[in-house]
Amino acid sequence: MISLFSRKKNVREDGEATRRHILETAVRLFAEHGYADTTSKMICKEAGVNLAAVNYHFGSRDDLYRAVLEDVHEHIVNEREMESIMDAGCSAEERLGMVLDAYIANIYNSQSWHSRIWAHELIAPSALGGLSFLQGTLTKERSISKLLSEITGIPVGDPALNCCVITVMSPYLIMLCIQRDMARALAPIFHYRCEDMNAYFKELIFSGLHSFAEKYRRGEFPSAMELPVESSVPGGKAAVSPVE
What we know:
The chain has eleven helices and no strands. Helix content is 68%, strand content 0%.
């Protein structure tokens, strides 16, 4: 005899499975077509569900996309993974290497729909992503900034360290923006093993960081002059705060 508790449990499990299936379908479609060109009808057809099921589990197409963005952050070195790396009992260089290993693994995964959505939001932010999505990305970059400060000795908040963050992350962000199946002629790097490419990247990155840090210690760089707020951004609006 099946108990009432068992029936309730099965209903919950079925409901969660349906929700996950809709979410995974939406991730793939939003990655392939972008936010603006992915309709509720497309999602329902691909997922094999009706609109009522989507609304029941997510509320609306916009709420579904917000859930997709949260899922993206979970897959692209989520905060728990970053905290685990930051707390690892090894050198700052080794910990930064672990972060870069995680990024390259996502990039080289040809079915990494989450990476594509992240790239979409970085290149052309949607109305639902925008600054809120960027804030999640900056949270991870703050951890990277702290590691780079340990490696170089440059204080957090110094514009020289902000340049280090941009330089370290740029190769990985550029690769995220290249869709492997659409731009192979432009991305021969994908013809090689990811661990080999990442070894080259890390050699270039760490060599450059040590050279940059040595020049910084010798005082060879001029002080950066901060622009007035009204002239730093067109229209006089305040800029996004630098990574700290």
